[in-house]
């Protein structure tokens, strides 16, 4: 297939690009490099079937010509993290909602065969049911989660009204090599690994008993390809590990000292995907458990040399807006 991957220089996108090339597909990567890195595509760009275009999904005129003769579109471009979405919700709307509209219109006009959208499990908010099925209520706690869900709603609507063959994948706590190493205070793995490199204690939120459905990035990439290869359309699927792990168990694997910081509002005590739908529909299942995933990241620990090293004070400063608006 001829594939287009928005956000393809990013964390998940670059792993997807690698797997698509390994499977024999042609790939056009579209990324504005605001958070993606060409280093992530170091091997991919040596492949004769891979092309890179620096463009922004917010600029419809820049991206629309790239959709001509494309079969599969994987839409992973977007802005992430909680605090920046509270501080600048307009940016998040422009990229995650209006940008998704541009991708959908371009895909529709080009008569592509399939579009796969990277949605977020954060849209569930604080679920009532674990493992959490796709039928659970949406209860976004902050603008990032809301805008990702609004993008999903657009994708489902374009599928229903315009006949665009499309699937939304709600991703749970993705981790692995090439995860973002700069920018706002964010995902626990990047924070912990940078602290470990510098010999700083790991900043554990609350008492560390909260658990997350840590899902390894190569498993997530394979889920995108399984979805694109399927006959399904107009449906939403969870993508998770089939398990959940406490932050304390992660700390044990990293074998470092810890300090504790206050529990944060709007965060669930547990994320745990019900993956029965994607397993039965696509035959997809995650293969990498937490121990293997963490071992692989530790083998590439130098990747986090340039990541910001957070401590109690800098985290307190970075999350003041979080507590101000979500701690009511």
Task: Name the features.
single chain; 328 residues; alpha/beta; Rossmann fold; UDP-galactose 4-epimerase, domain 1; 2 domains; seven-stranded parallel sheet; two-stranded parallel sheet; 12 helices
- Proportion of residues in β-strands: 15-25%
Looking at the overall shape, the CATH architecture of the largest domain is 3-Layer(aba) Sandwich
Radius of gyration: 19 Å
**Count of helix runs:** 12
Largest sheet entry: 7 strands, parallel
Shape: globular
Distance between the termini: 49 Å
Strand runs, count: 13
Order of helices and strands: EHEEHEHHEHEEHEEEHEEHEHHHH
**Low-confidence residue ranges:** none
How many separate structural domains? 2
Strand numbers in spatial order across the main sheet = 3-2-1-4-5-6-11
The portion of residues assigned to helices is 25-40%
Would you give the CATH topology of the largest domain? Rossmann fold
């Amino acid at each position: 297939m001829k594939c287009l991957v928005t956000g393809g220089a990013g964390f998940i996108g670059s792993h997807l690009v690698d797997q698509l090339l390994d499977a024999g597909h042609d790939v056009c990567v579209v990324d504005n490099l605001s958070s993606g890195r060409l280093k992530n595509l170091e091997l991919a760009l040596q492949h004769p079937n891979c092309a890179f275009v620096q463009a922004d999904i917010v600029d419809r005129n820049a991206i629309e010509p790239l959709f001509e003769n494309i079969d599969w579109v994987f839409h992973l471009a977007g802005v992430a993290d909680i605090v920046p979405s509270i501080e600048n919700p307009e940016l998040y709307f422009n990229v995650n909602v209006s940008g998704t509209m541009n991708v959908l219109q371009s895909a529709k006009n080009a008569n592509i065969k399939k579009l796969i959208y990277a949605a977020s499990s954060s849209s569930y908010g604080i679920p009532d049911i674990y493992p959490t099925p796709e039928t659970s209520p949406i209860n976004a706690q902050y603008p990032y989660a809301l805008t990702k869900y609004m993008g999903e709603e657009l994708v489902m609507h374009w599928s229903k009204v315009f006949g665009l063959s499309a699937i939304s994948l709600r991703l749970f706590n993705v981790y692995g090599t090439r995860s973002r190493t700069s920018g706002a205070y964010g995902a626990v793995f990047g924070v912990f690994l940078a602290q470990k490199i510098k010999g700083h204690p790991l900043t554990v939120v609350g008492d560390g008993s909260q658990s997350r459905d840590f899902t390894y990035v190569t498993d997530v990439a394979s889920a995108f390809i399984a979805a694109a290869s399927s006959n399904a359309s107009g449906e939403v699927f969870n993508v998770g590990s089939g398990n959940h792990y406490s932050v304390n168990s992660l700390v044990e694997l990293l074998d470092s000292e810890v300090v504790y910081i206050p529990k944060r509002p709007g965060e669930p005590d547990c994320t745990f995907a019900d993956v029965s739908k994607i397993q039965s529909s696509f035959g997809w299942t995650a293969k990498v458990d937490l121990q293997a995933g963490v071992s692989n990241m530790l083998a590439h620990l130098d990747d986090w040399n340039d990541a910001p090293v957070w401590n109690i004070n800098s985290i307190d400063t970075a999350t003041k807006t979080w507590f101000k608006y979500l701690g009511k």
